Amino acid sequence: MSDIRSSGPRAPIDSAGDRPDIAVSAADLVKSFQTPAGEVPVLRGVDLSLVRGESVAITGESGSGKSTLLHLIGGLDVADAGTLTVLGTDLRRADDRTRASLRRTGVGMIFQQFNLIPSLTVSANLAFQARLAVRYDPGRVARLAADLGLAALMDRYPEQLSGGQQQRVAIGRALAANPPLVLADEPTGNLDEETGDAVAGLLLSLVRQQGTTLALVTHSPRLAGLCDRRVHLRAGRLA
Amino acid sequence: MIGRARLVLWALLSHWRRHPLQLAMLLSGLMLATALWSGVQAVNAEARASYAAASDRLGAGSLSRLEPAPGQALTTADHVALRRAGWLVSPVVEGRLRAGSARVAVLGIEPLTRIGLTPEADGPGPDPTGDLHGFITAPGIGYSDASTAAILEGVDLGGLVLRVDPETPPNTLIVDVGIAQRLLGLGDQLTALTLAPDQPAGLPALARIAPDLVVVDPGQGGADPAALTDSFHLNLTAFALLSFIVGLFITQSAVGLAFEQRRPMVRTLRALGVPRSEVLGVIAAELVLAALLAGAAGIVLGWVMAAALMPGVAATLAGLYGADVAGTLALRPVWILSGLGMALAGTALAGAQGLIRTARMPLLAAGQSTAWADATSRSLRRQAAAAMVLALGVPLCLVIGGLVGGFAALACGLLAAALLLPVALDGALRLARRRVTGVLGSWFVADTRQQLGGLSLALMALMLALAANIGVGTMVGSFRGTFTGWLDQRLASELYVTARTEDEAAALRRWLAPRVDAILPIWNADAPLMGQPGKVYGVADHQTYREHWPLLSARPDVWDELAQGRVVLINEQLARRHDLTLGDDLQLPGGALPIAGIYSDYGNPSPQAIVGLDDFTRRFPDTPRLYQAVRVAPDRAAPLAEALRDRFDLPASAVVDQHQAKQVSLQIFDRTFAVTAALNVLTLGVAGIALLTGLLTLASMRLPQLAPVWAAGLPRARLARLDLLRTLLLAAATAIYAVPVGLGLAWMLLTVVNVEAFGWRLPMQVAPGLLARLGLAALLTALAAGALPAWRLARITPSRLLRVFADER
């Protein structure tokens, strides 16, 4: 299972990045943001490893650094210090193109705001990342659409869908390319409880079915409880 | 990677499929900008090609000429003497032949001596050596283009065989030098001898063989149409550039909106693994695609526009400068390329800000599309500072002087005024906020202020269009008013009679003498004035001149001194060009005279001088005396003209009454400025589209501001009416702001640009009617532009508004 360490004495985990069963390996990750009021530290030294195939819920209060940690793992942002290896790629040393390549082929991102392409239909949105990753399989997309209950909505545009439907499209888009790692940032945060539970259930069942690693940021203890493991961030450190 | 780029391009283009109106705005802005620019460039290119063709045909483009010194003549004998002495020269005869109401330029050449002067003298066009015998022996062969051949149809050319040659310059007849002398009644006189640039060694000095001839270098003559009309073409180019900028405002507005609306999409694309450089590259490719599409359409539209404008431009050039330009248009690759180049450059300008913002956009920043519409006080301060810098450029450019300096000063002034407009409107709204007390009024003012940033580009475009209309309209109005008054002064006599021969002129005068109050001979001769080709007139001593002649400045006893042959009058152009004032001496054939008066002479590009009639006959004894004015009671003018034509079998054009002459002059004037009027209307139309684009842009972005007001109880129809009212108020404020800017523009055009371009200074006449008309035009433009967004708002569904409050938005 996973090896979760909070701050404290830094254990050498460099070797974890080279292990084939480790999807994510972070050590002593530090990240701050510049604001008009000065530098605000968000992550103050986070150590985290994710084993392939497991689902991990990252919880914590607002401002504790959950989303920032997820963004660093997804290569959307770069840590100020520490080491971070995702699917064998050293993200601290990777340039923009390498990080983009990792996002394209290795990571499926699911956002709280769905981030669908508003001018493309459901069908085109579902297939989009798979086509970017050159892994487009129409049969797989059709199966995912059916599993997610989207088969009847394929020609609609995002603005014609409810929030729950849009989030299901976002999940389908993330999984259509069959990425080894899925990162979900508050995927049910914009949905009511019932819809949120349905969406979360679908997500978890699909990633388990495919053996995908999942890191999921959430405020919801119920959703966190559905994951294999749960880590809690407090004031920029794992508690 | 190409497949990925195509996928990204497909996603980006899908935005336009969902927003076709926005795409139409983007393309139409670019298309209009390109059309106005390339249309005017096509007109300019055509005119310049005509000048070049004329120059090539005359072989005078780069060759020096021998011309007679003031008061001297150049004859065939001089030519023979020079040839015998070994000089490589070729004779040229130039003149104008009357053909009904038109006058055709006659160019007489000597094909045998002309060949070999330079390669350009053997350039394209009619080749007289093809039928040399027919060309040089009576009745001769003449070459002209088709339209000139049509004009010459029915004119007695002494049996001359006319051959149509499309490469002959417009309104020109090319004949052998001897035939030209016969057609123009010049005897053995020549106009000039063209000098070959490479002459044999050891020739005797010119001064010894032909002491009465002077060498005139190319460009020195001052009659080159290309040089004379430069100001006109610069004027048109400036107008086209202004229209281009107004068109770019539309493009900038549409592109800016597209960038803002697609920010979330760009962020998503990057989050899904498309590198930043690829996103930027694909957006740039998309812009290039749009530029090429709209540019190509703009070139076609520009071509149509140019073809429609060309006859007007040809009339302008003939009326103002006496330059002959074909009234038709030829397709020239250079302006197609320049049109596409401008479309690409304009798109790059319009898209640069969006591309830079996208390049700098952090992947994780929240996409606040309303930021685009925010008129922050910081950006307003920056705009005000930029306007101040540009305003400082106005006096600097005026110090530099010249036509380019004048136009640069205009550009600085206009841009400064445009940049200050949002600052001024924001200030006015701040003041209004303090005065308004009601809840709805306060919201209305605050909401208008919030929208100012999004609408400022469109309002700036409207302001520029209105100011250009006011400026150019006031200039043309002042010109017309002054010109009409000037015509009344210049055409004070009731009839103007032209005889065909001197004998006929004498008989005419004898017949008229007992029937009229006075006969005022007006004789003229070509003569160089201050080194430039000009005309000297001889006028009789008569009360008509003393009472009516439009003198700008004069010595008190000017007419007495003129009658005694002791002084000369000169036109304003000559005085300004050479900085001549009263009391200065002017060199004339037969001796210099002091200048005793300066008169206005609108519409004439050349220098002109007036001497007393007796003095004139002494200085120019051989000049034909064919033209005279006749004073007679106004009610007797028409029957007298009729009787005169019957008695002497004169053509209708030989007797012109004052009314007719004024009508013709005003018609020419109005035709001259028809092009400007057309460009004015087009610019205002483009500004209207810019305003529509801005309003539609805002309409899609301001639902979050409108929804709470609607929810608070303001019906949609009322919101729509308020929106329309806001547009009208902003347009009215912009129109008021444009008045001083436009009048400033008119002042600059009249006192700086016109003086540089034409040599005349006109008094400014503000026309309240013009201002009222343009104010109305601004409101109508705003009404047309605001109607669609208001109608849409009135019909928006409640669910659309409710979505603003929904979590899932």
Question: What would a concise description of this structure say?
Answer:
The complex is a heterodimer of chains A (239) and B (809). Chain A is an alpha/beta fold. Chain A is built from eight helices and eleven strands.
Question: How would the blueprint of this fold be written?
Answer:
The complex is a heterodimer of chains A (239) and B (809).
Chain A lengths: L3 E2 L8 H5 L3 E14 L2 E14 L3 E6 L5 H8 L7 E6 L2 E2 L5 H10 L1 E4 L11 H11 L5 H10 L15 H14 L4 E5 L7 H18 L2 E5 L3 H6 L2 E6 L2 E2 L1
Parallel strand pairs in A: 4-9, 4-10, 7-8, 8-9
Antiparallel strand pairs in A: 1-3, 2-3, 2-5, 5-6, 10-11
Helix pairs in contact in A: 4-6, 5-6, 6-7
Chain B lengths: L1 H17 L1 H39 L6 E4 L7 H9 L4 E11 L2 E8 L1 H4 L17 H5 L4 E4 L1 H7 L8 E4 L7 E5 H8 L7 E4 L10 H4 L3 E4 L8 H4 L1 H32 L1 H9 L4 H46 L11 H28 L16 H24 L1 H34 L3 H52 L4 E4 L3 H11 L5 E12 L2 E8 L3 H6 L2 E4 L3 H6 L4 E4 H6 L7 E2 L6 E7 L8 E5 H7 L7 E5 L2 H15 L6 E3 H15 L1 H28 L1 H9 L4 H42 L10 H27 L3 H5 L7
Parallel strand pairs in B: 3-6, 4-5, 11-16, 13-15
Antiparallel strand pairs in B: 1-7, 1-8, 2-3, 2-7, 9-17, 9-18, 10-11, 10-17, 12-15, 13-16, 14-15
Helix pairs in contact in B: 1-12, 2-10, 2-12, 2-13, 2-24, 10-13, 10-16, 10-24, 12-13, 12-23, 14-15, 15-16, 15-26, 16-23, 16-24, 16-26, 16-27, 24-27, 26-27
